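Database export, one record per block. Field names are fixed; values are copied verbatim from the stored entry.
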Amino acid sequence: MMIIRHWILIVRRLARLFIGRIIVFCLLATLLLSSCAPNTAENKGEPERFEPSTLQALIGRTLFGRVYPTGVAFLGPRLFVSSGVGLLEYENGNLKQVFKWNTGFRDEINSLTYDSCNDVLWGFRPDAQRIIQYDGKEWKEIPFPLARGERFSSGDAFSKLVWICTNSGVWLQTDRSIWRWSNEEGGFLQQPLPAGECFVSPEPESNVLCFGNIASVEGKLVLLMHRSFISRFADTIKPKEPQFPPDRVFYFMNGTWEPLEIEVPKDFISKEVFAKKGRSFVRTTLGSLYELTFSGVKRIENGEEILAVTVADDDRLIAVLPDEGILDVGTGSKLARNLPDDFPGKEGSTHIAEEDGVIAIVWTVPGGTSERCWLLQDGKLRAISFL
């Protein structure tokens, strides 16, 4: 009897051990499968293509059921809109397909830019810390460029990346540095910043704190350097007078930074730069808008009201204003005859792109509670749906 009881105890212990291992295995499998859930599953390089009908179901799961558009660009006749749910491609004003790297409903793409030097699109995937490049056929993913010893920060994740095409190649502006794209290396090479007199900053020896913006003038790379730290994430400063000295201006020549000796107004403290076809327009922290040239800066009339600008293929400066609509700044003529009631207001973010006479405008308010996309062609403005 004792022997039987002994064997019964052994069998029970073995059964418990076996069941315990099964439980552990199931837990590990659950963790593994949860790490591959739709919101975290990443595809390397080549994104998945979704039909518009599939996207509608994903958008329905987002806050307010929005796509959260972040930018617009043409690649030839093809129109692309970057958003919080992927990269949307349109054909004749209709959604054709959606490119997604993360198969969940969240897949943010921002900083969408057309690069005329290489005839490609650039974009930024902050969640994945990746930069994407698309030539219309093939995709590339490049790790977010960081200097040795640096780590990807929240500032990097929320920053807007800027690409500038110049005679010396394509340049990338991140929140704290400048990088040149190298086709040979297949990556970005860091360009040191000029020595700075960041005398207002709490850390005068740190040039990064006084970094401003890059621009393109007559095909040359131009650098605007702050004289004090100014957060990119702060709202536009609107005191009666500028709080800091104006930016210093440099241009890149033969591998070195040369000071550009031009007279600038005292409010010339750059907030952001709109650049295309070798022309650059600088939005200041006070809201003014200037065109930057090698002979000086030219103030754009009513620049404080301009929401977004671009340079058309025929060199016209096209601007979006909340009350006037779409204007040819040079002539002052309105380009849209049928302005809708829900055209962009002063609130929110506006993006504009132009290709072969066709103008695309994307607008969204903070929080994504309202968003619109329009196409202007042959003087007629029509809304296009995100779905």
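Remark 1: Residues 2-35 form the longest helix (34 residues).
Remark 2: DSSP finds three helices and 29 strands in the chain.
End of record.
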